[in-house]
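User: Continuing from earlier, I have the next pair ready.

Assistant: Great, send them over.

User: Here they are, in order.

Assistant: Folding the first of the pair now:
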Amino acid sequence: MNPDLSWVLNDVLQVRGARHAILVSADGLLLEHSSAIGRDDAETVAAAMSSMQSLSRAVAPFIGSGTTGRWRQTLLEYEDGWIFLIAAGSGAYLAAAASADVDMESMSFRMQQQVGALGKAMTSPPRQNAGSDI
């Protein structure tokens, strides 16, 4: 059963200037995409975002902090906008595209909020009674 995760993307897209959002597995598979981007395009972007997070983690020592640092977010700037990429739990990433005039702080904050909500939604507590009468 694949849960409907569109609510995560829909909320991210409420930020003025947000265009598209996708949820990606660590191995590059598309888990969910917003309606404004076609599935084929979303799958291509999902594979690229998986590679981007891997690359971002690999260059973490370049920040020169004396440690490898922990990757939190990747921002890509283009002439017409931004791409935001953040971890969305174990083995998943949330990526969003936005216009050049997006409030970057609002976008990052909204994405972090949704990742927190997603983590809670995807975590189920251990069952107290597994169906046995013992």
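And the other member of the pair:
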Amino acid sequence: MTERSPAPGGLALVEALVNTLDIESGADALDTPDGRARLGITRDDEADAARALRESLRAVLLAHAGHPPHREVPPLGDLLAAAPLVVTVDPADGSAALTPADGNSLHARVAAAVAEALVAGTWTRLKACEAADCHWAYYDRSPAGRGRWCSMQVCGARAKMRRYRAKGA
């Protein structure tokens, strides 16, 4: 849906997970083996947990953009509470990071990405498009951090056209 470049660092995983559902068309990449494989989901029973995580992340990304949740979802903190993370320290330079204890766990990889983004100060820049028929995740690179749409050419233009038409009515 967007011409934007992917989010930085681990946020690219979060962005990719949220964007597995095209709300406008209803197409869900988690319904396909290839779509699940791109996220490291190997078992069919993991797809439902990934969907719950995706929608909880979407609600948080909407909050980052100043919008209410799109629907009732489990709190993200509850979903990530059991994600096993460990502190790793690079012996060469002493840098430390939180990393997934189980690199195959989507929840742990997302928790590590969120932790990394918190430390980097980039977490709140990952947002969901305000268009109700979109809610696509995007990384807001605007100087003031006030981006509203995943694409100015699509969602932004539609919103502006709706406002223009409403004024003329």
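Worth noting for the second one:
The first strand starts at residue 85 and ends at 89. The mean pLDDT is 88.
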